[in-house]
Amino acid sequence: MSYDTIVVGGGFSGLKTARDLAGAGQNVLLLEGGNRLGGRAYSRESSTAPNLRVEIGGAYLHREHHPRLAAELDRYGIATITAPEFSAFRHQLGPDALNQAFPIPGSEAVPMEAAIYTLLRDAHRIDLQRGLENQGLEDLDVPLIEYVEALGLPTVSKKFLLAWAWNMTGQPAEESSALWALQLVAAHHYSLLGVVLSLDEVFANGSDELVNAMRRDVPELRMGAVVKSIDQSAEIIRVTDHEGQVYEARAVVVAAPMNTWRRISFTPTLPEQRLSVIEEGHGGRGLKLLIHVGGAEEGISCVGDGIFPTLYDYCKVSDSERLLVAFTDSGSFDPRDLGAIEDAVHYYLPEVEVLGVDYHDWLADPLFEGPWVSPRVGQFSRMHKQLGEPFDRVHFVGSDVSLAFPGYIEGALETAERAVEAILRSSVRTALSR
User: Fold this and answer.
1) Pairing mode, if any, of strands 2-8 and 28-32?
2) Whole-angstrom distance, CA of residue 120 vs CA of residue 118
3) What does each of the 434 residues of the chain score in pLDDT, given as a tens digit?
4) How big is the CA angle at 76 (ends 82 and 204), to the nearest 5 degrees?
5) CA distance linking residue 151 with residue 159, whole number of Å
6) Domain parsing of the chain, residue ranges
7) How many other CB atoms are found less than 10 A from the CB of residue 387?
8) Which one, 43, 51, 134, 271, has least CB within 10 Å?
9) With helix as H, strand as E and coil as C, how does the chain read?
10) What span, in angstroms and rounded, lies between the C-alpha atoms of 364 and 348?
11) Domain 108-189 adopts which CATH fold?
């Protein structure tokens, strides 16, 4: 059977694309390679605390920063709750650190103010619509550690900045790009605090509640169909899955994660420079751990120079037990090593008992091959916006190629919106030419 459009990938970008095109009257097929929908938004029962639903992937939202996601929540009546408030602070940032929300001591206020000015000045150089390769930003696309060292910050301020950067980029400062850290600042209304304060709300009943609601509005869906090739050398595009099943359409939307595109054979071949970045894949190795502990204070928040740059409260399990969420990267830490987890937690909270850990290794998952997007140094100043632009009748969507909100559900929805508009415009032009 031939379709108007085939969508490859059932995360939020794929679901929105398929739903909106079908709602506009198109005959649409959604192909998902796995056995569940939602992509890197993944809620399920905790492996350490039965009957407790947890978010293994993306979880946080802010209605001001994420208007498209807010609109989807309102459309389906999906409930959210306020994220845990931090009220107890146990930082490890040096002898002059203060265990309060903003731990910078007064003696470092002036150099920190100067550094913030530089960060905001450089972030304001970024136009979120033009792409990082089109703005002469190569001087900022350097290892983050070099950029931070040049700021001349004292000990506490420097450690504080590096800890949150590691949390957000999913790469240690030696490997992450200063330009990408600044891109995240630009995306949050050019606000350093906006990046942190975007952790505002969470899904009350898990992100899969929204996933399932959107799925009900997608007329045709096939699970377990891993796409291996997309051939648009003829009038009708041929999409072939891993079992050799061939599907035909007039347009295709690739909504799979960027790091899996190299597993798809495109005919004609993608342009060389674009293909080279796709073959490299982005360098994000972010690791989110949900650590089950006993004896932790409610509202705990830790920032520091440990192997977990951040460790903070996630939710209550019982009167004496809680889940904490830690961020690090899979190249620096082995989450299978319970002893290492205990050491990392005890660096901040020596009094708690570690009962278990829950996580998903996105880098090792063949359907994702990486967590949220974080480019290699020098990569996106070479090729950024073009990664998400159409290649003839094949469109590319997903949070990995969002310009305004990369790595967020909002970014996935933003790119889907763009692709739907382009495909519907093309359909009108085709109809008028006949």
Assistant:
1) parallel
2) 6
3) 799 999 999 999 999 999 999 999 999 999 999 999 999 999 999 999 988 999 999 888 889 889 999 999 999 999 999 988 899 999 999 998 999 998 999 999 999 999 999 999 999 999 999 999 999 999 999 999 999 999 999 999 999 999 999 999 999 999 999 999 999 999 999 999 888 777 789 999 999 999 999 999 999 999 999 999 999 999 999 999 999 999 999 999 999 999 999 999 999 999 999 999 999 999 999 999 999 999 999 999 999 999 999 999 999 999 999 999 999 999 999 999 999 999 999 999 999 999 999 999 999 999 999 999 999 999 999 999 999 999 999 999 999 999 999 999 999 999 999 999 999 998 766 665 55
4) 25
5) 12
6) 2-40+207-282+373-433, 108-189
7) 22
8) 51
9) CEEEEEEECCEHHHHHHHHHHHHCCCCEEEEECCCCCECCCCEEECCCCCCCEEECCCCEECCCCCHHHHHHHHHHCCCEEECCCCCEECCECCCCCCCCCCCCCHHHHHHHHHHHHHHHHHHCCCCCCCCHHHCCCHHHCCEHHHHHHHHCCCHHHHHHHHHHHHHHHCCCCCCCEHHHHHHHHHHCCCCHHHHHHCCCEEECCCCHHHHHHHHCCCCCEEECCCEEEEECCCCCEEEEECCCCEEEEEEEEECCCHHHHHHCEEECCCCHHHHHHHHHCCCCCEEEEEEEEECCCCCEEEEECCCCCEEEEEEECCCCEEEEEEEEECCCCCCCCHHHHHHHHHCCCCCCEEEEEECCCCCCCCCCCCCCCCCCCCCCCCCCHHHHCCECCEEECCHHHCCCCCCCHHHHHHHHHHHHHHHHHHHHHHHHHC
10) 29
11) Polyamine Oxidase; Chain A, domain 2 (3.90.660)
β-strands 60-61, 201-203: how paired? antiparallel
Closest CA to 321 of 291, 360, 350: 291
Q: What does the block give as tokens for 288?
A: 């989110």
Spatial neighbors of 297 by CB under 8 A, at least 6 apart, are 88
